[in-house]
Amino acid sequence: VLHLPAPRVFRVRCPHLAVPATVQIRKVWTELAAGSNDVEAYADDRPLYYGPARPLTPTIPQASALGPWPHFTGTNVEIYKDTHGVFRYSQVRVLFDWEHGEIDRPDGAKAVQDARSAAVDQATKIASQVINYLLDVYRSITEENHVERLAKMLVTRVYFADTNLLYESVGIESGLGSAVVNRSRREIEEFAEMVEAGREPERYILLLQTARSALDRGQNLLATVVAFQAQEMMIEERLRVRYRDHGVADTEATAKLKANYRTKDRLTTLSREVFGGRSIADDAEFWGSWLRNCNHKRNAVVHSGEEITSVEAKQLVDVCEECINRFAAL
């Protein structure tokens, strides 16, 4: 929940967006907090809290059918760092003027339906940019670190005032489908064998999965940094193993790695040294893609503060993973 007063209207000029907007944020209590206070007030120099806070603990042991979360109820209470809106959540209204296609013609014609769908999609994209900008600003000012950008917006209502058209929907961020019974026998046996032996997953694999999870949440900068780190980690580890196989002392290998600290030098100079002249740079098409879409893009984002879109971030993560696979195959 964003702790901002409901009566306050915010005029927003979002960077990278030509459309100015007006925003109103309303805090909503859920049924688990029925009877809580709705008064709006604020102090000059500190947050204000509702009182008295009356949390009502669940019956213990809690019935399994109530789910894994403790089934608390109460009045005037919130879960700290809650990102699921258990007791309370924020409802945001974004208003803006914008030119759209002809959507006010009679229903039925495919062209009209297509225009309306396109208008809803574009309106949703504009509102999403505004809301994510608000979340960035709110987090930077309040230092509420759990408030993060949203990759997908659950937009429930789009209203076109000039044509009096209303679009309403419900949605689930990650989608809804058939429940899984179990994973495959192969995965189950591999899981059992690995935990029984006490083997740890490769760190770079976990980092790549973290990068893809960040992509799903719309955290493009985090995905960029983590994917590149996964790549660097795997490359250094494999180079050290190959130097060891060639009888090179660890101290000498470390000196070589320090002298060739740039990733592209390790993928070329050091790779050719330990793999008999071979390098992933031998494939000119892939190497050009890696330099443009991975190495140069990552450096621009990390060192120069350049923006990266979700499409560019996904491409970067994909190229990092392909680089890892190609380097492992040398």
Short summary:
By secondary structure, the protein is mainly alpha-helical.
Structure write-up:
With 330 residues, the chain is mostly helical. The chain has helices spanning 110-142, 185-197, 203-216, 220-245, 250-259, 263-274, 284-304, 310-328, and strands at 9-12, 21-29, 54-56, 73-75, 88-96, 157-160, 165-168. The strands form three sheets. It has a three-stranded antiparallel sheet with strand order 1-2-5, with helices on one face. The protein has a two-stranded antiparallel sheet with strand order 3-4. A hairpin with a 4-residue loop joins strand 6 (157-160) and strand 7 (165-168). The longest helix has 33 residues, at 110-142. The mean pLDDT is 92.
Secondary structure elements and their pairing?
Layout: E1 9-12, E2 21-29, E3 54-56, E4 73-75, E5 88-96, H1 110-142, E6 157-160, E7 165-168, H2 185-197, H3 203-216, H4 220-245, H5 250-259, H6 263-274, H7 284-304, H8 310-328
Antiparallel strand pairs: 1-2, 2-5, 3-4, 6-7
Helix pairs in contact: 3-4, 3-8, 4-5, 4-6, 4-7, 4-8, 7-8
Descriptive keywords:
330 residues; mainly alpha; 3-stranded antiparallel beta sheet; two-stranded antiparallel ribbon; 8 helices
Distance between the termini: 50 Å
* Rg over CA atoms: 26 Å
Largest sheet: 3 strands, antiparallel
Kindly state the mean pLDDT as a whole number?
92
Principal-axes geometry comes out as globular
Extended strand count: 7
Q: Strand sequence of the main sheet, in spatial order?
A: 1-2-5
Helicity, as a percent range: 40-55%
Order of helices and strands: EEEEEHEEHHHHHHH
Uncertain runs with pLDDT below 50, 5 residues or more? none
Into which percentage range does the β-strand content fall? 5-15%
The structure class reads: mainly alpha
How many helical elements? 8
